[in-house]
Design goal:
This is DUF1844 domain-containing protein. Pfam families: DUF1844 (PF08899). By secondary structure, the chain is mainly alpha-helical.
């Protein structure tokens, strides 16, 4: 049987568990939202660099934006407007970017996440 003294990896895992236990829920929620936003931006073709168009994948972007909309919509009452407001703004910007990047834009209310947020113009 290994102990933290005989298995240093075990000690690192324990430290990571302790660290996450100390992080406030609002921070974990906003961090997850920022990761979804960043990935969706890349998939909408908004990445910096010469390969932005190659990284564009609207099917993947739709999934990420819809997941973000679900997270933001459901978490907003729990995290308060101070945190939810900027997340909603970022979500709206991504929804508009998606529409702009689409060759055949969705009808209002049918875009990614709009079932949860309402139509975005």
């Amino acid at each position: 049987m290994s102990t933290p003294e005989t298995n240093p990896d075990s000690n690192n895992a324990t430290n990571e568990i302790r660290d996450i236990a100390e992080v406030a829920a609002v921070e974990i929620i906003t961090t997850a939202a920022v990761h979804l936003m960043s990935a969706a931006a890349v998939k909408c073709g908004l990445a910096e660099g010469h390969d932005a168009e190659e990284l564009k994948d609207l099917d993947e972007a739709r999934k990420l934006i819809t997941a973000l909309a679900g997270l933001v919509t459901s978490a907003a009452p729990e995290i308060g407007s101070q945190h939810a407001g900027p997340l909603r703004d970022g979500l709206r910007s991504l929804q508009l970017a998606f529409r702009e990047a689409s060759s055949f834009p969705d009808e209002p209310g049918k875009g990614p996440g709009e079932k949860l947020t309402g139509p975005v113009n």
